[in-house]
Amino acid sequence: MEILTKYFADFTPTQLQQLQALEGLYKEWNEKINVISRKDIDSLYLKHVLHSLSIAAIFDFQPGMQVIDIGAGGGFPSVPLAIFFPEVQFHAVDSINKKLTVIQEVAAGAGIPNITTQHTRAEQITNRKFDVAVSRAVAPLKDLLSWSKHLLNKPSEVRKHFGAQATEDMEIPAGLICLKGGDLAQEIHDSGRKPFIWPINEIFPEEFFNEKFILQVK
Ligand SMILES: C[S@@+](CC[C@H](N)C(=O)[O-])C[C@H]1O[C@@H](n2cnc3c(N)ncnc32)[C@H](O)[C@@H]1O
Description:
The structure is a single chain. This protein has eight helices and seven strands. By secondary structure, the protein is α/β, with parallel strands linked by helices. It has one domain: 3-Layer(aba) Sandwich (Rossmann fold). The chain has a seven-stranded mixed sheet with strand order 3-2-1-4-5-7-6, sandwiched between helices. Helix 2 packs antiparallel against helix 5. The protein binds S-adenosylmethionine. S-adenosylmethionine binds next to strand 2. Keywords: Cytoplasm, Methyltransferase, rRNA processing, S-adenosyl-L-methionine, Transferase.
């Protein structure tokens, strides 16, 4: 937990309670349904929660925004982001249903009301649009872009959530925002797009974040 308050000073008492509850809930549910490697569970707050919240260090999601987490697994990055942005609605989808049970149980146990789940492949959703798609460790950029294309509102639509305060320099959270690691040159080349890239170790200098990046394609 200290690793979170080191970087984010303004959690409300409710957020602190929710964040604290994650440890016990993920330990309990990860025993039943493996969503986090067993060796990583002791570093839950660094490797999963803070990693997910790197998105919140860059992007200020606005109340009323709708965000889809593609391939959410056990809820990363959507569960920490739902705690961070209680007025934003998160929709976690995964093609493996039992992983979504972990999200449902964690959300119920920690009292996180603003996250829903759906058992589906992202590319099969046809009846809904979102302001932003987030994703961690799911598929090459090219695939994420093709799966999310039909799901996303236009950046001009997303801008409306920012009202008069939106300026050209603001990091508007629109399009696909994904967490990726390693050498991304080939993957970016294959995508045919030029993502904005933020090295996470410039935000959080912990060694774990070396070679980890936030990518955004609007
Ligand atoms: C390596 S796990 C990552 C889970 C989570 N995002 C995390 O970082 O802990 C990748 C997940 O993506 C899901 N997945 C892969 N392709 C998908 C698709 N087309 N639509 C929805 N989920 C998908 C898999 O079922 C798996 O749970």
